[in-house]
Amino acid sequence: MNALSHTSKPDAARLALDVERVRVDFPILHQQVHGCPLAFLDNAASAQRPRQVTEAISHYYHHDHANVHRGVHTLSHRATDAYEGAREKVRGFINAASTSEIVFTRGTTESINLVAATLGQSVRPGDEILITHLEHHSNIVPWKLLCERTGAVLRVAPIDADGAVRLDELQQMIGPRTRLVAVAHVSNALGTVNPVKRIVEWAHAADVPVLLDGAQATLHAAVDVRELDCEFYAFSGHKMCGPTGIGVLYGKQHWLEKLPPWQGGGEMILSVSFAETVYNKLPYKFEAGTPNIAGAIGLGAAIDYLSEIGLANIAAYESRLLGYMTDRLAAIDGLRLIGTAEVKAGVQSFVIDGIHPHDLGTVLDHKGVAIRTGHHCAMPVMEFFGVAGTARASLAFYNTQSEIDQLIDALQVAREILS
Amino acid sequence: MNSGLLDIYRQKVLDHSRNPHNMRQPARADRQVTGFNPLCGDKLTVFLTLEGNIIKDVAFDGSGCAISLAAASMMTDALQGQSVDRAGELIQEVHAMFGEGAVPHDRRLADMRALENVRDYPSRIKCATLPWTAVQAALDDSGKQVSTE
Fold first, then answer.
1. Per the CB < 8 Å rule, is A362 touching B8?
2. Rounded to whole angstroms, what are the CA distances from A261 to A97, A108, A119, A211, B16?
């Protein structure tokens, strides 16, 4: 069951998520902001952590911390077991074939930069990297830099007025010079869910590898990299209730094997002399230096937490909540929804006539409602819709209908004051 | 409604933001500088025409939030017809107002005082200073673009 799929719908009768029980696990949600209960609707920027994640991290620091893969002493063993245990959890979470395909990074951005820097070494002038118009800056700028370095060409598949990628055009843009297709699984600014499985099929028909930016996907529904069949899948811990500073690059084993190492240092080598360096096996070849051990352990705890609730339950609950929010927003006079693609997850952007998003954000904050305002690190998307920025409310499974009502009430207040 | 909220969207601020003064693109200007706030994507261009040491005309154009539009409108009112030296002093007073909380005593900044509570909103101070930063760059003739970051 997968809400990010374009075919199957969750079986509502079988699913259940007790939001009040879930919220107990998130201490941060239970506070007042400017005298109002906090309604945290900025989850696409960074989600919150359940107690289980912070407790796993403090337990590790209080009992098990030592450097990994280094020592013969007990703590080093424990730390290594916990770190590698987290890698196995990640593998299971995205259904990768092997833990050697799971590289820990600082986040989605670093994962994408890793691919751009290594795969990029074989890119030649005139080669093409294909992205879409709805990408986050982190799936644009690494490729721009690569193109500037190599003389390759960045090609951009257009989007339509609903904020969906124009698939016919994207398909046609995959050609003999395409070296990589790099596409968001879910758009951070618009919430559009791209039909990535079809995109992968089209790319593979032309023998082109695909990188998927999964930063906005992993909190909202189950991801299966073997079903998607993508070569690379990048995502971040902090967008899925894990810590900041930890992320993942999944890569198909034979791709990771043929890519050159990226950063050099400890851990990524087997032996070093001034004449010759032998690089470590996967995934350590791409993990130079002491890794973010606690971050990986926290991410593992987040995966346990999400899995226990059930990604299918989360997807079904969020889908209902997003529908409710979108309907209530659409009923506001002078409000324009930005991003109305057929398949969406978690996010609704909007603008209100005559009110700047930053002013909206300030008024909403005063009513306890946290949303993101601005360009959402997707300036080309803003340009396409002819706005400098939008207001964006983004959901997680711990949000409630009454928080959405609080958002709508606060928007009415903002209109009274500002328009 | 929390009273603190109304303190940044005072009537004077809303009057300026809804009907900004000197919001136009002059046919010709001696200098123009675009102030850019990367945080929100706002861009305000300030146009300056000098006659010797005197600001003969200052205008602005672009898009921005209520705070930056009001500040730009107030900025043009304050600097119109002033000497370059005097303008420099006024700009310093504005920065001191948002930086250290110093109350501007110059009567040309009377309207700007309506924005004094923006100081309580760290993420919004740059909205208020954007046009002032841009006009400073225009007076210094130090480039075509200036960023708040």
1. yes
2. 21, 18, 10, 18, 57
A34, closest residue in chain B (CA to CA)? B2
Q: Which residues of A touch B61 (CB under 8 A)?
A: none
What is residue B83's three-state secondary structure? strand
Least confident span in A164-168, B35-39, B65-69:
B35-39
The CATH class that applies to domain B3-147 reads: alpha beta
Could you tell me the fold of the domain covering A12-49+310-418?
Aspartate Aminotransferase, domain 1 (3.90.1150)
Q: How close B40 gets to chain A, by Cα (Å)?
A: 4
**Residues with Cβ within 8 Å of residue A391, at least 6 apart in sequence:** A349, A350, A351, A352, A357, A360, A361, A364, A371, A372, A373
Active site residues of A: 377
Question: Where in chain B are the domains?
Answer: 3-147
pLDDT at residue A388, as a whole number? 83
**Residue A18 CA to its chain's centroid (Å):** 25
Across chain A, which has 419 residues, the per-10-residue mean pLDDT values are 52 69 98 96 98 98 94 93 98 98 98 97 97 97 98 98 98 98 97 98 98 97 96 98 98 97 90 89 95 98 97 96 98 96 96 94 95 91 91 98 98 92
Distance from the A15 Cα atom to the nearest Cα atom in chain B, whole angstroms:
39
Q: Is A358 on the interface with B (CB under 8 A)?
A: yes
- Model confidence at B80: pLDDT above 90: yes
- Measure CB to CB from residue B41 to each of A35, A375, A417 and give the nearest one: A375
The domain over range A53-307 is classified in CATH as 3.40.640.10: yes
> A358–B67: do the CB atoms touch at under 8 Å?
yes
How far is Cα B121 from Cα A86, in angstroms, rounded to an integer?
Answer: 40
pLDDT at B136: 96
Residues of A in Cβ contact (< 8 Å) with B1: 413
